[in-house]
Automatic annotation (TrEMBL):
Residues 244-260 have a biased composition (Low complexity). This is Uncharacterized protein. Residues 240-268 are annotated as: Disordered. It comes from Streptomyces violaceus (Streptomyces venezuelae).
Amino acid sequence: MTPAYEPPAPDYRLDGFQAATAQIEDDFASVTLSDDLFVPFFEHHSAHGRDSYLLLYDRSAIWDIPRTAEYVTLHITRDIEQRTFDFASERHPVVPLAQHWLISRGCPQEAAEGSPHHGPRPADAVTARLEDLLRSNPGNRYEVLDHYTDNPCSFDVGVEVRTLVCDSHPDSADAPYRLFLEETTKDMHTYTVREGAFASAEEADTWVVERDSPLPLAPASPGAFDRRAAAARARSTIGGNGLAVAPAPVSPPRSAEPAPTRSRRSTR
């Protein structure tokens, strides 16, 4: 029998370093408590050795409280002379938001965007375009208000991640509350992202619970389907067997759930 694949352990590069304070040591131990269940998406270590950036998928999140975000980012900073380290960490519901956090903390953009693809692939150009928007967050237009990860850990139902943001762009003034809906197919091969537009957060919550109409899609801005999105479509809609992958339907009915509370969940 072929042994199951086990991903490599995260490389923190802390040999010979100690936490700068006892509190930092305790916090780092708390964040990495289940790191034997972390799957590294990418790691970038600066040439001078002072910074490390990691994007990790936390397989233990499915046993945490419902709605827990499954992606963990770490930015480790080292004092080379004192041989000490500090760090910052955050949980994120989707990969582009995790990449944005790392880039905003100094990770080279090409390193964050060039991470290897694990798991499902984006199904179409719309998904690629919306992920680009979340990753770049131009002008800090998106403020994340809430998120909910619905992962039943079953091959009978796919994974759904809902991220509610407030969009400060003038073009979104009439419907500034945007619900980014990521839906992964039950076979875990592909996923789609769609952007719903709502006049209030309460409207978005009502839609999530009732699901009695299609997601009210936000209009695409002029020039949205640029060359990068077109290239992503050509790259992502062809499966490994050479067959085109059709976009997944938007928001099939799911079991009604209480509307999530307004909260942010982060680690340190």
